[in-house]
């Protein structure tokens, strides 16, 4: 830490000015790459930022992690600092972290900094800028349920069906985390709810409806079914599982009930010849499925017999052990 950095961190503007006038170099960096300007931006010291820029502090200096002063100011929502860097510092709002492609608009979207998103977009930030993994600001905002940011990005031309390298789309991640208001907005704007994500290990595809069923988001399931009720009995091309099968397997009783009320067929089998009632371990799900007429398949009975046999054996061994130990005493 240099004397200038210490004065900047303490927001001692007069002392920092004196040091700069005396020839202190504002671009000296710590081991982690932090410069005096990084520090001022992190703390949101507006006057200090202006002063450092007047003394030729580098507004594009990179930390070891690839973050610029502009990026550092975003998580704490220092809007005024952002405006100064863009105008006085003439910083490119689309400058990306070379390590992972992180960028100001994506960081602001992650951190729910609506005002900063608006400032960046007004100063030329690309709403479709991507990280190295293909994630965009819209995907990030949708994942976290930041509706105002989703709306702002869409209004500036963000691609609503953008798909990252892992296959996720804005409506997929919003459905996954149960952000019904975001899902509703995306559907109204024409989001493709048939686009699927493919698991890199199992190669099984998952749709927004299926992931919402898996995670128990009934309100999202309702919205997606309103758009197309026909998908309610769609079988997964790899596993043969239906949305009801997935909801049952994961013990999502409220979703199971909703799907059955909307016409889901409890008798459709997956590729292992099992039905939803065969795979659920949740008693409430079983009860709901039985009330809907579901019957356990013959294929499931051997497993139940084996399970009962194991339980019987365990009890028998326990009784014999107690008798043996009791008689030996």
TrEMBL record:
PROSITE patterns: ANK_REP_REGION (PS50297), ANK_REPEAT (PS50088). Keywords: ANK repeat, Repeat. ANK repeats lie at residues 1-31, 32-64, 65-89, 100-132, 133-165, 166-198, 239-271. The keyword Nucleotide-binding does not apply. It comes from the Eukaryota. InterPro entries: Ankyrin_rpt, Ankyrin_rpt-contain_sf. It holds the Pfam family Ank_2. SUPFAM superfamilies: Ankyrin repeat. This is SOCS box domain-containing protein. It comes from Amphimedon queenslandica (Sponge).
């Amino acid at each position: 830490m240099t004397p200038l950095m210490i004065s900047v961190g303490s927001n001692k503007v007069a002392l920092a000015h004196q040091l700069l006038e005396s020839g202190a170099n504002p671009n000296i960096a710590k081991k982690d790459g932090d410069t005096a300007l990084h520090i001022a931006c992190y703390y949101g010291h507006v006057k200090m930022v202006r002063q450092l820029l007047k003394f030729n502090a580098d507004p594009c200096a990179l930390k070891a992690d690839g973050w610029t002063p502009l990026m550092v100011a975003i998580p704490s929502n220092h809007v005024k600092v952002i405006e100064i860097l863009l105008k006085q510092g003439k910083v490119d709002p689309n400058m990306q972290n070379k390590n992972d492609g992180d960028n100001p608009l994506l960081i602001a979207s992650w951190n729910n900094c609506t005002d900063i998103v608006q400032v960046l977009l007004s100063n030329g930030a690309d709403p479709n800028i991507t990280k190295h993994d293909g994630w965009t600001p819209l995907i990030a905002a949708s994942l976290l349920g930041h509706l105002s940011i989703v709306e702002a990005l869409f209004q500036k031309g963000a691609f609503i069906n953008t798909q990252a390298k892992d296959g996720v789309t804005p409506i997929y991640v919003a459905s996954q985390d149960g952000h019904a208001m975001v899902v509703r907005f995306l559907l109204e704007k024409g989001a493709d709810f048939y686009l699927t994500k493919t698991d890199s290990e199992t190669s099984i595809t998952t749709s927004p409806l299926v992931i919402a069923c898996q995670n128990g988001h009934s309100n999202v399931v309702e919205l997606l079914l309103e758009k197309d009720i026909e998908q309610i009995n769609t079988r997964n091309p790899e596993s043969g599982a239906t949305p009801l099968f997935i909801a049952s397997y994961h013990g999502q009783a409220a979703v199971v009930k909703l799907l059955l009320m909307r016409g889901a067929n409890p008798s459709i089998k997956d590729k292992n010849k099992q039905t939803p009632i065969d795979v659920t371990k949740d008693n409430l799900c079983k009860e709901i499925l039985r009330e809907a007429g579901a019957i356990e398949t013959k294929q499931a009975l051997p497993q139940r017999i084996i399970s009962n046999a194991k339980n019987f054996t365990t009890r028998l061994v326990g009784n014999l052990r107690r008798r043996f130990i009791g008689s030996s005493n």
